[in-house]
Amino acid sequence: VTDLGETLFIDFEKVYELSPDLLIIPGELTESVTENLKARKIKTVLLKTPTKYEEVGPFYMALSKIFLGEEKYVEAYDPYIGESERIISDTKKSLSGVTKKVALFVEEGFVATGDTIAGQAMEKAGMVNVAANNTDYMMSFAEIKSADPEVIFCPVGLSETILKFEGYKDITAVKNAAVYEVDVEALVYASEGFAATIQSMSKYLLQ
């Protein structure tokens, strides 16, 4: 797989070299890039990356239509979204009555807030997200300590750092070693394994 750069910093020289039949992009292009793509007859589709939970379904519907067409897209879309919704609904039922406070670290210093896909999915699944009222993945050190999460989820490789951080030693989750590594990327980008990750998180809350 050719590295085309970061989402917001695509290396279009490499795109031109590859000359794909279709280019799906998450945002508007500059005039010069647009003209270059047209000149090379590279078809471009603008498909905004979802940033909220309710945008996930329409995003995958649009993606399925692009590759399968108007008549066949349901063959891919319905099973994926339908199964995801079922898993999240079942997870919410299993967590009925569970009031443990949860924090999801998406990386060191950033948490899944109430305006993010990950944060909203947690709440849809019946989890008590301590960062539900925060925005833009931001929650200060003091706020995290004050919220005192009883369970912390984090990316693979970060749990030891959280457990050893002196500033977190009095947080209930840290005192009880209730810090668990999960597939955070799947939650942040609503990619494959999204609902399964939510389900796996619930098992720790039921312990």
Q: Stretches where pLDDT falls below 50 for ≥5 residues?
A: none
* Annotation, overall tally of beta strands: 9
* N to C succession of SSEs: EEHEHEHHEEHEHEHHEHH
- Biggest pleated sheet: 5 strands, mixed
Gyration radius (Cα, Å) is 20 Å
| Class by alpha and beta content | alpha/beta
Output mean pLDDT: 90
Spatial gap, N to C terminus? 41 Å
The outline comes out as: globular
Report the total helices: 10
Tell me the fraction of residues in β-strands, as a range.
Answer: 5-15%
Proportion of helical residues: 40-55%
Description:
48% of the residues lie in helices and 14% in strands. The strands form 3 sheets. Strands 5, 6, 7, 8 and 9 form a 5-stranded mixed sheet that branches. The protein has a two-stranded antiparallel ribbon with strand order 1-2. The longest helix has 21 residues, at 74-94. The chain has 10 helices and 9 strands. With 207 residues, it is α/β, with parallel strands linked by helices.
Structural key phrases:
about 210 residues; alpha/beta; five-stranded mixed beta sheet; two-stranded antiparallel ribbon; 9 strands; about 50% helix
Architecture blueprint of SSEs:
Blueprint: E1 5-6, E2 9-10, H1 12-18, E3 22-25, H2 31-39, E4 43-46, H3 53-72, H4 74-94, E5 101-107, E6 110-111, H5 117-124, E7 128-129, H6 141-147, E8 151-154, H7 159-164, H8 172-175, E9 179-181, H9 184-189, H10 194-205
Parallel strand pairs: 3-4, 5-7, 5-8, 8-9
Antiparallel strand pairs: 1-2, 5-6
Helix pairs in contact: 3-4, 4-10
